[in-house]
Amino acid sequence: MSKPVKNMIASEYESRFKGVTGAVVVEIRGLDARATTSMRSSLGSKGIRVTVVKNALARRTFKGGPLSALHTALQGPSALLTGPESAVLVAREIVKAAETEKKIVLKGAIFDGEYFDGDAGVKMLGAFPTREEGQAKVVSILLSPARNILGIVKTIEEKLEAGETIARVA
Protein backbone atom coordinates (compact mmCIF):
# COMPACT_ATOMS: atom_id res chain seq x y z
CA MET A 1 0.00 0.00 0.00
CA SER A 2 1.42 3.39 -0.94
CA LYS A 3 2.21 6.06 1.62
CA PRO A 4 -0.50 8.49 0.38
CA VAL A 5 -3.13 5.75 0.75
CA LYS A 6 -1.89 4.92 4.26
CA ASN A 7 -1.99 8.61 5.19
CA MET A 8 -5.53 8.87 3.83
CA ILE A 9 -6.65 5.87 5.89
CA ALA A 10 -4.93 7.24 9.02
CA SER A 11 -6.64 10.58 8.45
CA GLU A 12 -10.00 8.80 8.18
CA TYR A 13 -9.31 7.00 11.49
CA GLU A 14 -8.45 10.32 13.14
CA SER A 15 -11.72 11.90 12.05
CA ARG A 16 -13.86 8.81 12.70
CA PHE A 17 -12.51 8.17 16.20
CA LYS A 18 -12.05 11.79 17.29
CA GLY A 19 -13.52 12.22 20.76
CA VAL A 20 -13.96 8.46 21.27
CA THR A 21 -12.71 7.41 24.71
CA GLY A 22 -14.09 3.89 24.89
CA ALA A 23 -14.20 1.04 22.41
CA VAL A 24 -14.22 -2.75 22.08
CA VAL A 25 -11.93 -4.71 19.75
CA VAL A 26 -13.20 -7.99 18.30
CA GLU A 27 -12.20 -10.47 15.64
CA ILE A 28 -15.02 -11.39 13.26
CA ARG A 29 -12.98 -13.67 10.98
CA GLY A 30 -14.90 -16.76 10.00
CA LEU A 31 -18.34 -15.15 9.97
CA ASP A 32 -20.13 -15.56 6.67
CA ALA A 33 -21.67 -12.55 4.93
CA ARG A 34 -25.14 -13.22 6.33
CA ALA A 35 -23.92 -13.44 9.94
CA THR A 36 -21.75 -10.33 9.55
CA THR A 37 -24.61 -8.34 8.04
CA SER A 38 -26.99 -9.53 10.76
CA MET A 39 -24.50 -8.60 13.50
CA ARG A 40 -23.78 -5.19 11.99
CA SER A 41 -27.46 -4.38 11.56
CA SER A 42 -28.42 -5.45 15.09
CA LEU A 43 -25.54 -3.44 16.56
CA GLY A 44 -26.24 -0.54 14.19
CA SER A 45 -29.84 -0.34 15.38
CA LYS A 46 -28.42 0.43 18.83
CA GLY A 47 -26.08 3.08 17.44
CA ILE A 48 -22.97 0.87 17.61
CA ARG A 49 -20.56 1.25 14.73
CA VAL A 50 -18.34 -1.62 13.53
CA THR A 51 -15.14 -0.55 11.76
CA VAL A 52 -12.63 -3.08 10.43
CA VAL A 53 -9.21 -1.48 10.92
CA LYS A 54 -5.68 -1.92 9.64
CA ASN A 55 -3.79 -2.66 12.86
CA ALA A 56 -0.53 -0.82 12.18
CA LEU A 57 -2.34 2.30 10.95
CA ALA A 58 -4.77 2.21 13.87
CA ARG A 59 -1.92 1.85 16.40
CA ARG A 60 -0.09 4.76 14.76
CA THR A 61 -3.23 6.92 14.74
CA PHE A 62 -4.23 6.11 18.33
CA LYS A 63 -0.71 6.60 19.75
CA GLY A 64 -0.74 9.15 22.58
CA GLY A 65 -4.54 9.41 22.55
CA PRO A 66 -7.34 7.93 24.64
CA LEU A 67 -7.39 4.73 22.56
CA SER A 68 -3.62 4.11 22.71
CA ALA A 69 -3.96 1.22 25.21
CA LEU A 70 -5.74 -0.80 22.50
CA HIS A 71 -2.38 -1.51 20.82
CA THR A 72 -2.31 -4.87 22.66
CA ALA A 73 -5.64 -5.95 21.15
CA LEU A 74 -4.80 -4.73 17.66
CA GLN A 75 -3.14 -7.96 16.52
CA GLY A 76 -4.53 -10.07 13.69
CA PRO A 77 -7.88 -9.30 12.03
CA SER A 78 -9.54 -6.58 14.11
CA ALA A 79 -12.79 -4.66 14.14
CA LEU A 80 -13.30 -1.68 16.42
CA LEU A 81 -16.76 -1.19 17.93
CA THR A 82 -17.79 2.22 19.19
CA GLY A 83 -21.10 3.51 20.43
CA PRO A 84 -22.89 6.80 20.96
CA GLU A 85 -22.90 6.54 24.75
CA SER A 86 -20.61 4.24 26.69
CA ALA A 87 -18.21 1.41 25.98
CA VAL A 88 -20.09 -0.49 28.71
CA LEU A 89 -23.17 -0.69 26.48
CA VAL A 90 -21.03 -1.68 23.49
CA ALA A 91 -19.42 -4.46 25.55
CA ARG A 92 -22.82 -5.73 26.73
CA GLU A 93 -24.17 -5.91 23.20
CA ILE A 94 -21.13 -7.63 21.67
CA VAL A 95 -21.02 -10.15 24.54
CA LYS A 96 -24.67 -11.01 23.75
CA ALA A 97 -23.80 -11.31 20.06
CA ALA A 98 -20.77 -13.50 20.85
CA GLU A 99 -22.96 -15.89 22.85
CA THR A 100 -25.09 -16.58 19.78
CA GLU A 101 -22.28 -16.35 17.20
CA LYS A 102 -19.37 -18.40 18.56
CA LYS A 103 -16.90 -17.22 15.89
CA ILE A 104 -16.74 -13.69 17.35
CA VAL A 105 -13.55 -13.35 19.40
CA LEU A 106 -13.50 -10.68 22.11
CA LYS A 107 -9.98 -9.24 22.06
CA GLY A 108 -10.07 -6.27 24.42
CA ALA A 109 -11.69 -2.98 25.37
CA ILE A 110 -10.88 0.42 26.75
CA PHE A 111 -13.06 2.51 29.05
CA ASP A 112 -12.04 5.75 30.77
CA GLY A 113 -8.38 5.06 30.01
CA GLU A 114 -8.41 1.58 31.53
CA TYR A 115 -7.66 -1.40 29.29
CA PHE A 116 -9.65 -4.65 29.65
CA ASP A 117 -7.85 -7.59 28.07
CA GLY A 118 -9.43 -10.44 26.16
CA ASP A 119 -12.70 -12.24 26.56
CA ALA A 120 -12.77 -11.94 30.36
CA GLY A 121 -11.98 -8.23 30.23
CA VAL A 122 -14.75 -7.40 27.76
CA LYS A 123 -17.24 -9.46 29.78
CA MET A 124 -16.16 -7.69 32.98
CA LEU A 125 -16.63 -4.30 31.31
CA GLY A 126 -20.10 -5.37 30.13
CA ALA A 127 -21.04 -6.14 33.74
CA PHE A 128 -20.26 -2.57 34.88
CA PRO A 129 -23.21 -0.28 35.51
CA THR A 130 -23.73 2.53 33.02
CA ARG A 131 -23.65 6.14 34.22
CA GLU A 132 -27.46 6.21 34.42
CA GLU A 133 -27.59 2.91 36.33
CA GLY A 134 -24.93 4.15 38.75
CA GLN A 135 -26.78 7.41 39.33
CA ALA A 136 -30.03 5.54 39.97
CA LYS A 137 -28.26 3.31 42.50
CA VAL A 138 -26.78 6.33 44.33
CA VAL A 139 -30.17 8.07 44.46
CA SER A 140 -31.76 4.87 45.79
CA ILE A 141 -29.10 4.62 48.51
CA LEU A 142 -29.55 8.27 49.45
CA LEU A 143 -33.33 7.96 49.63
CA SER A 144 -33.44 4.72 51.64
CA PRO A 145 -32.94 6.42 55.07
CA ALA A 146 -35.79 8.81 54.25
CA ARG A 147 -38.01 5.83 53.35
CA ASN A 148 -37.13 4.18 56.68
CA ILE A 149 -38.03 7.33 58.60
CA LEU A 150 -41.31 7.65 56.70
CA GLY A 151 -42.09 4.02 57.53
CA ILE A 152 -41.51 4.65 61.24
CA VAL A 153 -43.64 7.81 61.17
CA LYS A 154 -46.43 5.90 59.40
CA THR A 155 -46.29 3.12 62.00
CA ILE A 156 -46.52 5.67 64.83
CA GLU A 157 -49.41 7.40 63.09
CA GLU A 158 -51.29 4.08 62.65
CA LYS A 159 -50.76 3.16 66.31
CA LEU A 160 -52.00 6.57 67.48
CA GLU A 161 -55.06 6.34 65.23
CA ALA A 162 -55.82 2.91 66.66
CA GLY A 163 -55.64 4.35 70.18
CA GLU A 164 -52.46 2.58 71.17
CA THR A 165 -49.82 4.26 73.27
CA ILE A 166 -46.30 4.61 72.08
CA ALA A 167 -43.52 3.64 74.42
CA ARG A 168 -40.49 5.86 74.60
CA VAL A 169 -37.28 4.12 73.63
CA ALA A 170 -34.27 5.18 75.67
Summarize the structure in short.
This protein is of the alpha+beta class and 170 residues long. It has 6 helices and 5 strands. The chain folds into 2 domains: 3-128, Ribosomal protein L10, N-terminal RNA-binding domain (Alpha-Beta Plaits, 2-Layer Sandwich), CATH 3.30.70; 130-170, no CATH class.
CATH homologous superfamily identity of the largest domain: Ribosomal protein L10, N-terminal RNA-binding domain
- Low-confidence sequence ranges: none
Largest sheet: spatial strand order: 2-3-1-4-5
Average residue pLDDT: 85
What's the end-to-end separation, in Å?
83 Å
Tell me about the largest β-sheet.
5 strands, antiparallel
Please tell me the total number of domains: 2
What this model shows, in words?
The protein is of the alpha+beta class. The protein has two domains: 3-128, 2-Layer Sandwich (Alpha-Beta Plaits), CATH 3.30.70; 130-170, no CATH class. Helices cover 52% and strands 15% of the residues. It contains six helices and five strands. The chain has a five-stranded antiparallel sheet. Strand 4 (105-111) and strand 5 (114-117) form a beta hairpin. The model has no long low-confidence stretch (mean pLDDT 85).
